[in-house]
Structures are given as structure tokens and as C-alpha cells.
């Protein structure tokens, strides 16, 4: 489990593909990563499979390649990184599981004051999990949703978030990983089940 508060931006060092899977090697300033540890890479929960010096590697399954933007990563690309939540940590963002629901794209970026409004598209099936002032993880970054409809939503990105994550480098058309709020998904499932029974 994660919080959507990015620890650092790493850089893809190598991408190796084999039999439908991929191995990503990432250079980062994170230290003390253990083998088998969970780490969110652009919001997708991965397992540290190897580490050496300032790099670590993760194996990306075919399912994760289908569901996320990880398959499009190339050498030199920046990625958002967050280690898993410890029970003693502050929960500054929201509960993020690293289970990407689907991908969207940057529709528009509009400056507003010192911040910027980012409009993202999303798959139609995810719209029911978005609520005004609810949470969403975009490439692993915990953000607050507003102005949402069946095809898109807006978030405000403050200067710190733009500088400390990959969001500040995004351009219209760039694809992103989306994870809706798990609590919204459970409520939706429970309500749907209750309605079917009655």
C-alpha cells in the first residue's frame, strides 16, 4: 500500500523484453531497498527483483504491460517512485494500492495563478468512481478531483508537485496511469450487490 506522495523521480536505465514480460532497471537516489520489497513505479506496484548501487530492477508482467503505461517507457524516461507505506508513516495523501485501473491522457494544461489545472481523459468505465473533491492517483501522485464527467476530470497541480514529480514535464497527449479511490470502488460494489438482492 502507498500514499501517493512521491519520494523521488528516478530514471529508466534499461528496458529488456522477454516472452511478453519486461525488466525495467531504474536509477534513483532511494537507498536501502530490499529484494522483494514493493515499490510504486508511476503508480504501479512492482517488486524489487535485483539491486546494485544506485539502481534496482523490477519485472513487469504481461498483464501490467497491458494495463499501464510501463510498456511505453524507454531509456532516459523519468518515473515517479514511492516505497510502500509503513504502519508508523503519516498518511499525507490517500490509500493507493498500486493497482492501476487504466490509462488516460493529458487533455489540457491551463496555468492558474502559480499552479496549473490539468485535464485528463479517462476510460468511461472509471467515471463512476470519481466524485467531486475525491481522490485519484495519476502516475502514482495523490490528487484531488474536480470538474469530473463521464470522459474526463481536472486536478490542480501546485508548483511543488510539478517540480517533485513527473507531472511538471507532461504535455497534452501524454499518457498516464490512473488508479481510482479504492474506497469508492468498494462502496460501488456493495451498493450494486445490495440493489441486485432487493
* Low-pLDDT stretches: none
CATH fold group of the largest domain: Elongation Factor Tu (Ef-tu), domain 3
Gyration radius, rounded: 17 Å
Structural class: mainly beta
Number of strands: 12
Shape: globular
Number of helices: 3
Secondary-structure element pattern, one letter each: EEEEEHEEEEEEHEH
How many independent structural domains? Answer: 2
- The first-level CATH class name of the largest domain: Mainly Beta
Strand content: 35-45%
User: What is the second-level CATH architecture of the largest domain?
Assistant: Beta Barrel
Mean pLDDT: 92
Strand order of the largest sheet: 1-2-5-4-3-6
**C-alpha termini separation:** 34 Å
Helix coverage percent: 10-25%
Summarize the biggest pleated sheet. Answer: 6 strands, antiparallel, barrel
Report a brief summary of the structure.
With 198 residues, the chain is mostly beta strands. 14% of the residues lie in helices and 41% in strands.
Overview of this protein structure:
There is one protein chain. With about 200 residues, the chain is mainly beta. It folds into two domains: about 10-85, Elongation Factor Tu (Ef-tu), domain 3; about 100-195, Beta Barrel (Elongation Factor Tu (Ef-tu), domain 3). Helices cover about 15% and strands about 40% of the residues. The chain contains three helices and twelve strands. It has helices at about 60-65, 160-165, 180-195; strands at about 10-20, 20-25, 40, 45-50, 55-60, 80-85, 100-110, 115-120, 135-140, 140-145, 150-155, 175-180. Strands 1-2-5-4-3-6 form a six-stranded antiparallel barrel. A hairpin with a 2-residue loop joins strand 4 and strand 5 (about 55-60). The longest helix is centred in the last third of the chain and has 16 residues, at about 180-195. The mean pLDDT is about 90.
